[in-house]
Amino acid sequence: MKFLFTVLFLLFLQFFYAQDEEYVYANGVFQFEENKTQKIFTDWTRVRQEPNVNSQILDSLPTNQQILILKKEESILKLGERRANWYKVSYQKGEKVSEGYVWGGNLCVGYRNKNGFDFLFGLTKTVNKKDRQFPDIISSQNIASIKLVEGNTLVDEVSFDTGSGESLSYATFTIESNHKLQNVELTLNAMVSGEACGIPSYTQYVLFKDKKLIALPQLMNVGDADVFYHSEEFIFPNDKDGIPNSFIFKMEEMEKDERDREKKKKASKTYLWDGNSYKLK
């Protein structure tokens, strides 16, 4: 009986410290530099007197509000698969400059400005859904979105998956050319990555035309040293082997068997673009 109690006690400690360790480390995409400007992603983000959810609410800030990061706090809040530090920030409304604390998960992961429009990239929530790699498994998946903002007005928004918290080590958000697709003003590229073997990275292309955002099928890449990899990419009209008014999806996969022999699979499909929407050829 004493042995049983000892085992149960050790299991309890292991569970406790595992939970505590999970709480300690924030997702890398929510690491923001002090003394640098940032933008609010979640509309009406609460500004609190202290860095915790029970603290007094001082104010709320709209999407696209610019703030200055003053200090990163040690305290971390976890909501779903999103784990982020609290930040002390300052911001200006009219003539008044104020300070307070905001949760890092409510800030933009990336933002860009082009032709008078602001494009904001951020994480919105966590949902339970089928895993893309293992369809029989239900797992927690983060949902991200890109917002199109003109002045203080949200014009359009598209949402997409970004995998589990393991895939949020770092992110990029860039504006590319129109890839010579008819009527497209520019393309946006949002990417998140796990930066480790076996952890997928997700790339989302979004087309911008006539104040509308059009999300293309999502790309996923993952690899495990030299044993396995799965890669996906788009070939646009201005790329080598590109086709006018279309884009090509290409997939390549390699896996080594027990005798260290490579087995490769390749696939491709073409999407036709008519200047307003796309469809599978």
TrEMBL record:
<keyword id="KW-0732">Signal</keyword>
<protein>
    <submittedName>
        <fullName>SH3 domain-containing protein</fullName>
    </submittedName>
</protein>
<feature type="region of interest" description="Disordered">
    <location>
        <begin position="254"/>
        <end position="281"/>
    </location>
</feature>
<feature type="domain" description="SH3b">
    <location>
        <begin position="33"/>
        <end position="111"/>
    </location>
</feature>
<feature type="signal peptide">
    <location>
        <begin position="1"/>
        <end position="18"/>
    </location>
</feature>
<dbReference type="InterPro" id="IPR003646">
    <property type="entry name" value="SH3-like_bac-type"/>
</dbReference>
